[in-house]
């Protein structure tokens, strides 16, 4: 969590500085930012909740650093991005601790169940958001 506030605050200005110095770096950063925005659909859709759930998933590439990059690229408010990262890291730690203490067989079963629960949860959240947007 130590680098997260710095990434959220300074990633874009650092990327602009680097892009101004080198055209190849500029193209690479543009490509990286476009790809990140394209793949951050649920996070962009649900903002805090989406970022927190993204960071909470204990898979490679879904940790606090990646969450901080996403928060910076999506221009999330600082405290919103920081708190979503923090809660996500805590939940990921609790989940990994639970899975380690269950043993391999139960951890696999729990992982499969959590996958289906998360898929179901995202569909419910989308329906709730859609129904709220039609009311407005």
What does the model show?
One of its GO terms (cellular component) is chloroplast. InterPro entries: Sm_multidrug_ex. Pfam families: Sm_multidrug_ex (PF06695). Keywords: Membrane, Transmembrane, Transmembrane helix. This is Small multi-drug export protein. The protein has 136 residues and is an all-alpha fold. It has one domain. Helix content is 86%, strand content 0%. It is built from seven helices and no strands. The chain has helices at residues 4-21, 23-39, 41-46, 48-56, 64-73, 78-102, 104-135.
Q: Categorize the overall geometry.
A: globular
Order of helix and strand elements from N to C terminus: HHHHHHH
Classification by helices and strands: mainly alpha
- Give the number of helices: 7
Query: Roughly how many Å is the radius of gyration?
Result: 17 Å
Distance separating the two termini? 38 Å
Please state the average pLDDT score.
86
Largest sheet: none
In total, how many domains does the architecture comprise? 1
Helix content: over 70%
Low-confidence stretches: none
Strand content: under 5%
The number of strands is 0
